[in-house]
Amino acid sequence: MKxxxxxADGKFAVTGEIGPPKGVDASEVLHGAAAMAGHVDAVNVTDxxxxxxxxxxxxxxxxxxxxxxxxxxxxxxxDRNRIALQSDLLSAGALGxxxxxxxxxxxxxxxxxxxxxxxxxLDSVQLLAxxxxxxxGHDLAGHQLDSPTDLCLGAVVNPGSDDLELQLxxxxxxxxxxxxxxxxxxxxxxxxFKRFMDRAAGIGLPVMVGIVPLKSAGMxxxxxxxxxxxxxxxxxxxxxxxAPKEDRKRVSVEMSVxxxxxxxxxxxxxxxxxxxxxxxxxRIVSEAGLR
Length: 291
Fold this sequence. Notes:
Elements: H1 3-8, E1 13-18, H2 27-36, E2 42-45, H3 57-66, E3 71-76, H4 82-94, E4 99-103, H5 124-136, E5 152-157, H6 164-177, E6 181-186, H7 190-200, E7 207-211, H8 217-226, H9 234-242, H10 248-263, E8 269-272, H11 280-287
Parallel strand pairs: 1-2, 1-8, 2-3, 3-4, 4-5, 5-6, 6-7, 7-8
């Protein structure tokens, strides 16, 4: 089911996320998605996340669809020109994939093929406009399609950005270009999220808060140092640091549930990015009272 349909029906949407494998055997990530099924409305499939070459998002989305799991096809601007981007969106529509999340994508200097040329023929706003055109029955060059797509278009936003005004401006542009929902970068501070939502309320589109369970203090410190707009409070870093290794998953679930409880009344959904801890998603969803 389209996420936009859930929002229109007044439902609180919950999504998970998996990353395709660096190889041809997708059984492990499909198993992770299956563990989430029944607890989430859809599962995002990342597109060469962090500019690391992996199996394609579109193929994994198709496999999820065959297993009866609703996918969210993530598509980044970094690796394709406008012809390939539109072609992949047509392929998604042909395969019955209804939900897409359109992103700019991390630069190749962050990934495992740093010598690769970036494309960025379109930015995320332009890609949304192109996808809207496909829904309307024409391509970016104005040529009519034999049959249009019927995609629910999503976009991303960073509530903790140092330049909140720029994020709000981008939200407005993405809304005008055809976005129908937003998923956020990881949120760890409810007050930061509240300030953002107070400012974003006038945009009028559903926002799904991004939750990334903390695995360790090292992960928290890395995110604080390297991920723009993400700030893990010292108290959370200390809490996961003091947890014995065998208790870290339990503590991670507890902190994720506390975060969701604090922010869920401010937004229209939760997007849980477990980064390999797929087995935590059902526990988080259940303990947070989302299902």
